[in-house]
């Protein structure tokens, strides 16, 4: 069942991140300068949460990509030879021989598995890797914009704080 | 008066919880939709005599391409209708939450006014 996961996660993440983008960016751009410190702190907190969420998504996508790459490598390896060690438990193996190295069964998602020859399997996984790569790229861009947003929020906060202390010190004089 | 306020806040909190539940299921449906669409696309690329297995519990069971395809199509349809349903639910809930919020604020104001009146008199 664990195999199903790399399929599921990237899609889910790409959609949630799309939602975040549409709801939060316009609000910030319009009002940042007019907000007072507490509101800015609120925005900052929200941005930080989003960033944390996006960064974990990014990691997961990277992992998914690596997993698909592993699949490609495995298919290539079994083509090379037909001797294999079969794990019976984690510490016990028997040697075996692959009868048919050109036929593999590929998990295409939602519980369906398709029999493919190794070339088809490799191209299937290559497509997956490309797909995930594209998602990683868009996600990376979102993260960069979020980071910029966070930075400008912090800048404005610092500016306001320095202004605030300046005016109070003026008043105290 | 206090009990009334508490009841109102409870109702509001319950609505908020429902709303976040609805959002969650909307997101889950979305990921299911995406996954099924990928499978559908993959099936279209397959030859008609391709061997397809379906995972049922821990076993892989062989299945016709036609059967598997219609199965996925049906699932997609179901998911799409579910998304529509949840979407309506979402709109309904956010409207209700907004209304309840105003109600709570309004009530708090009258409550506060009441307290001031009693304390000043």
UniProtKB/TrEMBL annotation, chain A:
Q: Would I find Acyltransferase among this entry's keywords?
A: no
Which InterPro entries does the record associate with it? PFD_alpha_archaea, Prefoldin, Prefoldin_subunit_alpha
Keyword Coiled coil included in the entry's annotation: yes
Q: Which Gene3D superfamilies match?
A: 1.10.287.370
Entry keywords, A to Z: Chaperone, Coiled coil
Pfam families given in the database record: Prefoldin
Q: Which intervals carry biased composition (Polar residues)?
A: 12-24
Q: Name one GO biological process term.
A: RNA polymerase I assembly
Coiled coil region boundaries? 37-64
The terms describing its cellular component in GO are:
cytoplasm; prefoldin complex
GO MF annotation terms: unfolded protein binding
Q: Which CDD domains match?
A: Prefoldin_5
* Comp. bias (Basic and acidic residues): 1-10
Q: Where is this region: Disordered?
A: 1-24
| Family classification | Belongs to the prefoldin subunit alpha family.
Q: What is this protein called?
A: Prefoldin-domain-containing protein
Organism expressing this protein natively = Glomus cerebriforme
UniProtKB/TrEMBL annotation, chain B:
As recorded in UniProt, coiled-coil segments are: 5-49, 76-103
Q: Name one GO cellular component term.
A: prefoldin complex
Keyword Chaperone tagged: yes
**Example of a GO biological process term:** protein folding
Q: Which domain of life is it from?
A: Eukaryota
List GO molecular-function terms, semicolon-separated: protein-folding chaperone binding; unfolded protein binding
Does the record bear Chaperone in its keywords? yes
Q: What is the official name of this protein in its record?
A: KE2 family protein
| Keywords attached to this entry | Chaperone, Coiled coil
Q: State the family named in the UniProt similarity comment for this chain.
A: Belongs to the prefoldin subunit beta family.
Q: Per its UniProt record, what InterPro entries does this chain match?
A: PFD_beta-like, Prefoldin
- PANTHER family linked to this entry: PREFOLDIN SUBUNIT 6
Q: Name one Pfam family in it.
A: Prefoldin_2
Query: What SUPFAM superfamilies does the annotation carry?
Result: Prefoldin
